[in-house]
Amino acid sequence: MEELAHPYVPRDLKLPGYVPISMSMSSIVTIYLGSSLLVVFLVWLLFGRKKAKVEKLLMCWWAFTGLTHIILEGYFVFSPEFFKDNTSCYLAEVWKEYSKGDSRYAGRDSAVVSVEGITAVIVGPACLLAIYAIAKEKSYSYVLQLVISVGQLYGCLVYFITAILEGDNFATNSFYYYSYYIGANGWWVLIPSLISFRCWNKICAAANNNVEIKTKKKTR
Amino acid sequence: MEELAHPYVPRDLKLPGYVPISMSMSSIVTIYLGSSLLVVFLVWLLFGRKKAKVEKLLMCWWAFTGLTHIILEGYFVFSPEFFKDNTSCYLAEVWKEYSKGDSRYAGRDSAVVSVEGITAVIVGPACLLAIYAIAKEKSYSYVLQLVISVGQLYGCLVYFITAILEGDNFATNSFYYYSYYIGANGWWVLIPSLISFRCWNKICAAANNNVEIKTKKKTR
Prior knowledge:
Two copies of one chain form a homodimer. In chain A, helix 1 crosses helix 2 (53-77), helix 4 runs antiparallel to helix 5 (141-165) and helix 5 (141-165) packs antiparallel against helix 6. Chain A has helices at 25-46, 53-77, 90-98, 110-135, 141-165, 174-219. Chain A has one domain. With 220 residues, chain A is mostly helical. At the A-B interface, helix 4, helix 5 and helix 6 of A face helix 4, helix 5 and helix 6 of B.
């Protein structure tokens, strides 16, 4: 049986049984962004009157990133043969398309699968818990958001460093390299950094308050 | 030139220029444990009178793990050819010996190098900062310890999951598998888990106190 040529780099990557992508890039991206916007809109609507703006934005982020982790990345982790899919399943199409930016997904690189596994199974559900924690003003709200964000940053570090160590040659061309590999992942470096910074400061402020109260009690 | 046989598994691992280990296992372990005990003893002595027992223990842990990360793991990260070392350099001997438990170190597996790189360059110095934070009772003491511990746990997860995905066949025999690979790393799962749990609780308690104070102020 002649093997169908895949569009990924390195060109010698073996993908026996590869079935070409059937959806267009614009359809794949539109469905992802459209359904993400719908999620954000629903979360905003649901908590619209009760919460401050920054908290609503955070809940939208946790809903968006949590569902991305669980659904998209969860599918990848548990579908080692997504590149053979011939049913035009949307989730398989997403990863066939994304692999143009990083062929380690199609090639099942163990570092990528590990990070994605941790992200889908542990980080994803924790993101949904963060929505609940913010909504109910739980005492663990900031510390949970910090821990998740640190996990996301650690995952991104492993993701980028392993690529560099393995030659950083996994993108079909520089358009996919900068839009998918750098551009899409960049948000998961930027936003978790901002959230970590905010939560760190909030936690330190609470600790400081506590010390002040204890000192006051002592000096009375 | 005939290649010297290495003791690592898988047997087909290529290590051109390999120089056999010259120190005995007992010497390597004794020097590591001896110098670690010295560090612990010095930290205990230095803060002996001023701190509660649990805080002294934590400072000892941060000194031990921080120096292990920076010196031992730092050497590994920046010495890709340690297995060629013929000077009986102690740090090279450590990694020649440890590779019997996990040959991915000698084989320069990119996931292992990534995790060790993050550990040596970011986590290690952060551990030393944690000693200072505890000593000076900084407001960021608990949150720093939590972030470091979460990083260590994430690193261990990537370390173990990548090994499983790659076939879990990197130990010379089951003695090295259980003593080095499982036994030695087990401490970096157990202790960071305990510290994370403690810091999480401390941070939540402080957050709870803050909420109570605010509520009291409002109801006055």
